[in-house]
DNA sequence: GAGCACTGC
């Protein structure tokens, strides 16, 4: 060429710094030259002074030295697997390199990078916008629920949560606007990442112009390579390895099994405090109660030690950490360790006692010692009884390594495992079971159906879920009429999939205008979608219960939730009102956001927001609408002692003590089954058996019903109903159509449109 | 008569 001297860094002013780069054939020399240009290649503005400073820091990242290798591999392959430990810079740098190679901005396309968590998507996008010297929300943006920080036409690099991309795919199955999709943190195997990976593997075979990068921590990279071998069964996807940059962590095991892991954990923390050099401690336990209790005991013992020997034992603060703590309290983990008591005295130390949240979601700098009892509480799904529960289980090797790594972020550290090396090697599973194997699959199956997957059983999953779990999901969706008998998505199912809700709730919301209570059902599903609004602090339980009783509607907990939300609104979202009534303001605010989002989806489908004036009629309509979604979660009273049996599955359950019903009605519908000291049902509302027969006739088809007390009770209801119908004394309350007429609909002023069209004149 | 690890739409 003779015009371009490859050895000068800056191109002439006015020249595009990307000049000479062929899309997807960029070389490291070209990219580095563009990065070092004085002009920003993406917006043609001169670089701000901080850009060069940041660039110098980026050059120290391991991935920078391997740029040439990565670009070659990216150029030559449609799919690449990247592994790199924390600190390798893969999350911030790889997407930028892909942009320099893809040049998405020249084609009106976007490079996407998914994250399992919202905060990560936001904070990484901000970081990368800084590094690229562009504005956040313009050239580099992010998409998470409730927040779309992008500018159509301008954004060419987008960080987003995995579930957000999955939603986009549901409405644009070719994901046409994306040139390359990067799945980050794939080793976490969230449900959304798993579904996306399977979907994108298939899409990549339909769209040869789409590139896919799957990024993971080192451990299961081979599995992804093999899974993504679309070039042929003997051609695994190529692997690009980035060297990590963490400090070594020395691992210690116990010589004997520890009979009491909490006691052993506390002993170990105190041993470190007494005998080890400065540095903070991170202790992993399983749950809130255990953590609070351990904090009290550690504090007590540490104070005792310090009193005995103030010359050599420094002060110690113990900080609990779990997700239900308010953010302000979570921030305490970043407080510095306490100062020593005397100028020359032993230094203070900070102990963070945490759930798994400190394993991935939150990173605490300054941790040098990790104490790992090897346990965590995990969600397990039992397809036989169709419910999820939490179980304390041994962690996986991968998880143990992740925990140990937390000690090596700032300098070499130590990890004390409270189990024997032999058990680590022989008893622990390699990987934590991916979420798809541990969860109720109803939503996932509906999402896959909406993505266009026809055969949900033989679909090419990364790890195929248990057939029984799949069958349970298909069965539920079929009863809800989201899938037909052949397993095809129905128009109703397609609509349900667009609501960010569990399928039962989506169904209930969609049919609620038929009962003239969609305004209220919308509120109830929003309240059921957020964490519990009830605050019940350990030393104020009586007061909290009194406050709750004042808001309780005895006909059902669902109605109580409605009442709480309406009271919150009529009290103008007042935080003090929330506080005085022992309610969580954050959860109520979240419910309001969710409600608004769902309302927008309803508007898209012309689902009206209607209500009924007469409160008694309204409450009854709401209870009927509940049946349309939750008919598979019904319990029937058995015996005199307030015991219940779940319908069909025959699980013995009790009403949860938080339940607000003033009696124990014969038939109830429940939102949640929880297994703690014994099996409970929570958030419970009374229903009438005739509604079950009427609104869920397929599920309550008595000819296929298991024999027992429930069946006999339903049979007698059916018999009475038939008799009434024959002699003409029926009240009409069992007819679907009648309830449309017996309540005068009160429409919201703004929403005067299509109800008549939809229900054929109603 | 008692509390749910952690994400996400």
UniProtKB/TrEMBL annotation:
Residues 1-20, 329-349, 726-762 are annotated as: Disordered. GO terms for cellular component: post-mRNA release spliceosomal complex. Keywords: ATP-binding, Coiled coil, Helicase, Hydrolase, mRNA processing, mRNA splicing, Nucleotide-binding. Residues 747-756 have a biased composition (Basic residues). Residues 336-346 have a biased composition (Pro residues). Residues 71-237 form the Helicase ATP-binding domain. GO terms for molecular function: ATP binding; hydrolase activity; RNA binding; RNA helicase activity. The keyword Cell wall biogenesis/degradation does not apply. Gene3D superfamilies: 1.20.120.1080, P-loop containing nucleotide triphosphate hydrolases (3.40.50.300). It is an enzyme of class 3 (hydrolase). It holds the Pfam family DEAD. It catalyses: ATP + H2O = ADP + phosphate + H(+). This is RNA helicase. It comes from Dichomitus squalens.
């Amino acid at each position: 060429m003779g015009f371009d001297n490859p050895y000068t860094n800056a191109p002439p002013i006015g020249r595009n710094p990307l000049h000479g780069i062929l899309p997807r054939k960029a070389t490291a020399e070209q990219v580095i030259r563009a990065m070092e240009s004085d002009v920003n290649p993406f917006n043609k503005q001169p670089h701000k002074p901080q850009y060069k400073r940041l660039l110098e820091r980026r050059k120290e990242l391991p991935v920078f030295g391997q740029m040439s290798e990565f670009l070659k591999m990216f150029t030559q392959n449609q799919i690449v697997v990247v592994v790199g430990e924390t600190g390798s810079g893969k999350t911030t740098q790889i997407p930028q390199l892909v942009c320099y190679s893809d040049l998405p901005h020249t084609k009106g396309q976007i490079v996407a990078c998914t994250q399992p968590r919202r905060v990560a998507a936001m904070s990484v996008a901000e970081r990368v916008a800084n590094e690229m010297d562009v504005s956040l929300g313009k050239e580099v943006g992010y998409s998470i629920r409730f927040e779309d920080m992008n500018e159509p036409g301008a954004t060419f690099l987008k960080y987003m949560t995995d579930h957000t991309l999955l939603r986009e795919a549901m409405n644009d199955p070719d994901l046409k606007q994306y040139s390359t999709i990067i799945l980050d943190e794939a080793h976490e195997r969230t449900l959304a990442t798993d579904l996306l990976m399977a979907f994108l593997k298939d899409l990549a075979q339909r769209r040869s112009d789409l590139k896919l990068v799957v990024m993971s921590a080192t451990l299961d990279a081979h599995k992804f390579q093999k899974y993504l071998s679309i070039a042929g069964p003997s051609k695994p996807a190529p692997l690009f390895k980035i060297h990590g940059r963490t400090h070594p962590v020395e691992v210690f095991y116990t010589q004997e099994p520890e009979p009491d892991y909490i006691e052993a954990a506390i002993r170990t923390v105190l041993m470190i405090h007494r005998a080890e050099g400065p540095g903070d401690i991170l202790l992993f336990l399983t749950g809130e109660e255990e953590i609070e209790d351990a904090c009290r005991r550690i504090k007590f013992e540490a104070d005792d030690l310090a009193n005995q020997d103030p010359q050599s034992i420094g002060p110690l603060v113990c900080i609990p950490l779990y997700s239900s703590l308010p953010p302000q309290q979570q921030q305490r983990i970043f407080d510095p360790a306490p100062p020593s008591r005397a100028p020359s005295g032993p230094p203070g130390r900070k102990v963070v006692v945490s759930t798994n949240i400190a394993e991935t979601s939150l990173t605490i700098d300054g941790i040098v010692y990790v104490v790992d009892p090897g346990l965590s509480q995990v969600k397990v799904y039992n397809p036989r009884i169709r419910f999820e529960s939490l179980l304390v289980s041994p962690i996986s090797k991968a998880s143990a390594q992740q925990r140990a790594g937390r000690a090596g972020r700032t300098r070499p550290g130590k990890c004390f495992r409270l189990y024997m090396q032999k058990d680590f090697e022989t008893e622990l599973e390699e990987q934590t079971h991916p979420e798809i194997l541990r969860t109720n699959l109803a939503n996932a199956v509906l999402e896959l159906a909406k993505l266009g997957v026809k055969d949900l059983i033989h679909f090419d999953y990364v790890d195929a879920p248990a057939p029984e779990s799949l069958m349970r999901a298909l069965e539920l969706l079929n009863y809800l009429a989201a899938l037909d008998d052949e397993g095809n998505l129905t128009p109703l199912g397609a609509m349900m999939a667009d609501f960010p809700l569990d399928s039962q709730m989506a169904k209930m919301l969609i049919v609620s205008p038929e009962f003239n209570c969609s305004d209220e059902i919308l509120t109830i599903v929003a309240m059921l979608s957020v964490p519990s609004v009830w605050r019940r602090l350990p030393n104020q339980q009586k007061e909290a219960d009194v406050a709750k009783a004042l808001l309780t509607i005895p006909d059902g907990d669902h109605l109580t939730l409605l009442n709480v939300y309406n009271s919150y609104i009529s009290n103008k979202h007042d935080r003090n009102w929330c506080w005085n009534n022992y309610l969580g303001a954050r959860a109520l605010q979240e419910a309001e956001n969710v409600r608004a989002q769902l309302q927008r989806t309803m508007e898209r489908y012309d689902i009206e927001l209607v209500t009924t004036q007469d409160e008694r009629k309204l409450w009854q309509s709401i209870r009927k609408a509940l049946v349309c979604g939750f008919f598979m979660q019904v319990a029937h009273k058995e015996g005199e002692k307030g015991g219940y049996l779940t319908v069909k599955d025959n699980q013995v359950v009790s009403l949860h003590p938080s339940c607000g019903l003033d009696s124990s009605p014969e038939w109830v519908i429940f939102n949640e089954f929880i297994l703690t000291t014994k099996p409970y049902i929570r958030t419970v509302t009374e229903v009438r058996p005739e509604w079950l027969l009427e609104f869920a006739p397929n599920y309550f088809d008595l000819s296929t019903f298991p024999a027992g007390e429930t069946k006999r009770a339903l049979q007698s209801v059916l018999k009475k109903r038939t008799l009434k119908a024959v002699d003409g004394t029926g009240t009409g309350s069992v007819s679907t159509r009648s309830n449309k007429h017996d309540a005068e609909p009160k429409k919201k002023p703004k929403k005067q449109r299509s109800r008549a069209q939809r229900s054929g004149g109603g």
